[in-house]
């Protein structure tokens, strides 16, 4: 019987995280399971079927996945690098300075900015008669004659930078704070130049968290829905928009559950990315201990 | 100099100010830093300026009188308050408990709290609409419950950083050995040390709720971001004005919270509010 008592005691140690755990299970895990089950259910009768998955991996939907992944990769790497540079510039500013506080709060606001308001901003700026387009045309460089269009994939990438860069700044700043000044001092005491410090100390320490942040951006770009919908009104097939149109009821008979299969597809892509992320985090943590 | 004297700058131990400056110049990074910040400012401010010019000042006045403006804004504010309260009540004890009793769970918690950022909200709402009981579907406050899931990563990370910034274990043990019970310890020892972390959690949660569109629109509730889109069908310049208004109001609000919090934190000798992390007072101590 003693093992029962000790097991009970062991379980009781976890009592403090139960409310959180229950909330996460109900709010996150159960909906995802519902999606996964729905992906294999036939809409009439609810029997088991592969038809949804088959639809979801062919034709326009397969194209959607390809476009989504391409867009997510570009709009995680590009803002990742730019965000790192900006975060470094903010980080080296004096603590508590107004510049720093404005930059950091602005990051929080812009990282959550999206959808139609963001689309408006860019239509007014880089739309075919937008302000910046006009300036560029006056300078003799009309972006619309050089293959750029706000309503194409290249335009969506430019717009995504607007919330992806701030998100990068937010998530990479703690990693930058983890760089101990003592390491820098030790390196320069031993005669290392700046680039040598970054090449041999700062870079290797930062790199795993940097990659982790990239994966976070990847997830964010993958799930961006409102912005792409507002920008392109469906002209670029993206999986999130396709799922949304299923929810809005634009469905052919017999395909009601294809949306869930698409959702499952996104979750699988994320799961692969997450696995990489945890592996990388483990390395980053070992360095920063 | 005041900030340096108070030791809020990580790199600055007493008297190495000049050395740091010398390092900077050797970096040659200072002009680079300004170039980066200026380019970033252009990218982020130009669209704001263009939209401002497009909307015109007049439409800011008229947007307030449009039907639905007040209602939707009020709904968003209520949701922000509810979400923040639930998030704080749920995540603060959890974070403290994990730090004190289950430090081995910290890595797992970090993994779990990443999920809501990377799982597409559109997938989440598909599943939620399927399993939600009908009684929950009818009320907009359900959105608040869903937003707690989305806000949780930001809240947890803020608390996690805040808890790393002081020696929680020693302080609670000291408090307990002086005869304080757990409620008193939490209220009088832990909470005061976490004010900046709570502030950043609040700031991030509020920003999230005031900007969320996907779930609200697919759940068919007219929060402020949804109203802007619906309203767009009727009037161009005014809806641009509404978007700008939403952005500026949130920003000013966050700036006010952050500045108030930092001032208070500085007065009590703690670090600045940094949203994702709270800077350490003592950088030498390992976490």
Itemize the secondary structure elements and their pairings.
The complex is a heterodimer of chains A (289) and B (287).
Chain A: H1 2-13, H2 18-38, H3 51-56, H4 59-91, H5 98-111, H6 115-126, H7 131-138, H8 153-177, H9 181-189, H10 194-223, H11 226-232, H12 239-247, H13 258-288
Chain B: H1 2-5, H2 17-27, H3 29-55, H4 58-63, H5 69-101, H6 106-118, H7 121-131, H8 134-137, H9 141-164, H10 168-177, H11 182-193, H12 195-211, H13 214-218, H14 224-232, H15 236-267
Helix pairs in contact in B: 3-15, 5-9, 5-12, 5-14, 6-9, 9-12, 10-11, 12-15, 14-15
**Topology of chain B as a string of helices (H) and strands (E):** HHHHHHHHHHHHHHH
The SS-based structural class of chain B is: mainly alpha
Q: Any idea what the CATH architecture of the largest domain in chain B is? A: Orthogonal Bundle
Strand tally of chain B: 0
Total DSSP helices of chain B? 15
CATH architecture of chain A: Orthogonal Bundle
Largest sheet of chain B: none
Could you describe the largest sheet of chain A, including whether it forms a barrel?
Answer: none
- Computed over alpha carbons, the radius of gyration of chain B is 22 Å
- Number of strand elements of chain A: 0
Give unreliable regions of chain A as ranges: none
Q: Estimate the strand proportion of chain A.
A: under 5%
Range of helix content of chain B: over 70%
CATH homologous superfamily grouping of the largest domain in chain B: MetI-like
- The CA-CA distance between the termini of chain A, in Å, is 41 Å
Number of helices of chain A: 13
Overall shape of chain B: it is: globular
Largest interface by residue count? A-B, 100 and 106 residues
The low-confidence parts of chain B are 1-28, 269-287
CATH topology of the largest domain in chain B: MetI-like fold
Would you state the CATH class of the largest domain in chain B? Mainly Alpha
């Amino acid at each position: 019987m003693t093992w029962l008592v000790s097991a009970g005691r062991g379980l009781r140690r976890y009592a403090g995280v139960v409310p959180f755990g229950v909330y996460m299970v109900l709010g996150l895990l159960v909906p995802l399971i519902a999606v996964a089950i729905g992906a294999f259910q036939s809409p009439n009768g609810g029997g088991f079927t592969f038809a949804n998955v088959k639809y979801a991996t062919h034709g326009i939907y397969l194209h959607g996945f390809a476009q989504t992944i391409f867009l997510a990769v570009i709009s995680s790497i590009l803002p990742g690098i730019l965000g790192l540079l900006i975060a470094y510039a903010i980080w080296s500013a004096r603590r508590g300075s107004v510049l720093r506080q404005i930059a950091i709060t602005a990051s929080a606001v812009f990282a959550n900015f999206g959808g139609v308001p963001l689309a408006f901003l860019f239509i007014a700026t880089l739309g075919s008669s937008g302000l910046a387009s006009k300036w560029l045309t006056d300078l003799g460089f009309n972006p619309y004659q050089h293959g750029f269009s706000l309503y194409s994939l290249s335009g969506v990438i430019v717009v995504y930078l607007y919330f992806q860069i701030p998100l990068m700044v937010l998530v990479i700043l703690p990693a930058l704070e983890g760089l101990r000044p003592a390491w820098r001092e030790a390196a320069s005491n031993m005669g290392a130049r700046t680039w040598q410090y970054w090449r041999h100390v700062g870079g290797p320490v930062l790199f795993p968290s940097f990659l982790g942040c990239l994966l976070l951006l990847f997830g964010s770009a993958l799930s961006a829905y409102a912005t792409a919908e507002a920008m392109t009104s469906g002209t670029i097939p993206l999986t999130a928009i396709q799922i949304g149109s299923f929810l809005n009821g634009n469905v052919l008979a017999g395909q009601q559950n294809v949306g869930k299969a698409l959702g499952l597809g996104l979750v699988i892509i994320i799961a692969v990315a997450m696995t990489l992320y945890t592996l990388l985090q483990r390395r980053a943590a070992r360095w920063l201990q | 100099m005041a900030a340096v004297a108070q030791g809020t700058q990580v790199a600055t131990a007493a008297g190495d100010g000049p050395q740091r400056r010398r390092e900077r110049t050797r970096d040659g990074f200072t002009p680079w830093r300004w170039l980066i910040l200026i380019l970033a400012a252009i990218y982020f401010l130009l669209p704001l300026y263009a939209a401002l010019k497009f909307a015109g000042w007049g439409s800011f006045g008229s947007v307030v009188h449009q039907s639905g403006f007040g209602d939707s804004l009020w709904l968003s504010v209520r949701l922000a308050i509810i979400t923040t309260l639930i998030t704080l009540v749920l995540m603060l004890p959890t974070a403290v408990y994990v730090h004190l009793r289950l430090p081995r769970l910290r890595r797992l918690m970090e993994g779990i709290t990443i999920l809501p950022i990377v799982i597409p909200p559109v997938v989440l709402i598909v599943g939620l609409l399927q399993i939600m009981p009908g009684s929950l579907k009818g009320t907009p406050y359900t959105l608040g419950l869903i937003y707690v899931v989305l806000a949780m990563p930001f809240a947890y990370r803020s608390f996690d950083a805040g808890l790393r910034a002081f020696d929680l274990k020693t302080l609670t043990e000291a408090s307990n050995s002086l005869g304080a019970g757990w409620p008193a310890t939490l209220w009088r020892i832990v909470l005061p040390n976490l004010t900046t972390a709570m502030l950043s959690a609040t700031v991030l949660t509020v920003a999230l709720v005031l900007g969320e569109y996907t779930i609200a629109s697919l759940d068919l509730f007219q929060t402020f971001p949804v109203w802007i889109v619906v309203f767009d069908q009727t009037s161009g310049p005014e809806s641009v004005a509404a978007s700008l208004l939403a952005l500026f109001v949130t920003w000013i609000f966050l700036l006010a919270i952050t500045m108030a919090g930092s001032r208070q934190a500085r007065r009590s000798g703690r670090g600045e509010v940094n949203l994702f992390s709270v800077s350490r007072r003592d950088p030498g101590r390992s976490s």
